[in-house]
Amino acid sequence: MQSAIRGFTPYGISVVVKFGGSLMRNLEACRAALAELEELGRSGHRILIVPGGGIPDKAIEAVDATHPLAPFTAHHACALAQDQTAYMLSDPALSSNLVACSTLGECRLRLREGKLPVLLPSKILFALDPVEWSWDITSDAIAAWIAWLTDTPKLAILTDVDGVYRNAATDDPTALITEIRSDELARLGHTSIDACAAHFMSQRGISGVVLNGTHPYRLRDWLEERRVTGTRITSIPHTISPLQQIALGAA
Fold first, then answer.
1. Burial code of 131-168, b = ≥16 C-beta within 10 A, e = fewer?
2. Model confidence pTM above 0.85
3. Residue 223 burial (CB count, 10 A)
């Protein structure tokens, strides 16, 4: 985490975890992944979870495939789908220490209480309108934006494959890209992380990783700087954070 700027309270988040909706296809594996996140929280990692659209999002995509929706409708419905996934992830049926939060201030409060906040993104997205109303923007890009907004140094994308693969060959272990710069990743287009997210990470100096959430221990290994199966995304910081921008503007 970046050092605090006088007059601005840091959010105190050590890692933003985008929890892919694909992990809800197997609810027992989903519960295991959430249990590991809770254990990481108890061991000192300050985690903010940004949910994918999951099952609700797939229903919206199915309608759009046969009856194309207006950009306004698709964008707002998909943001609300992320909210629905957040509520399900934080339900006692799937987790014990996750709490759905509609504001970043509430997320900060829950972290202080030892809880794991799961962001309900729609309220922030509707208020600030930071992204295009386009299918090219997914919850990956939203998670990257939240990491930048909160000045969080690490971003983990949990999905149902081991990482990013050359030519999308997810059935070929030798095609797994173990490390890549964010600008190079953006040039690959949409992979297991969307191109807009990769481009944003490149422009904002955000580093991260794409991991298979059905192997929950891999996130711990990455956080504790051990070797891990996945795709590490490197980036050279070259822009100031939102908090720094505010401070400079007030100077």
1. beeeeebbbbbbbbbbbbbbbbbbbbbbbbbbbbbeee
2. yes
3. 20
Tell me the domains of the chain and their CATH numbers.
15-250 (3.40.1160.10)
Q: Which two tokens stand for residue 141?
A: 């890009």
H/E stretch holding 88 reads helix 71-89
Q: In degrees to the nearest 10, what's the CA dihedral of 208, 201, 87, 112? A: 70
Q: Do 27 and 55 contact (CB within 8 A), yes or no?
A: no
Strands 154-159 and 207-212: parallel
3-state SS, residue 73: helix
pLDDT in single tens digits along all 251 residues of the chain: 455 688 888 999 999 999 999 999 999 999 999 999 999 999 999 999 999 999 999 999 999 999 999 999 999 999 999 999 999 999 999 999 999 999 999 999 999 999 999 999 999 999 999 999 999 999 999 999 999 999 998 999 999 999 999 988 888 999 999 999 999 998 988 888 999 999 999 999 999 999 999 999 999 999 999 999 999 999 876 555 555 555 445 54
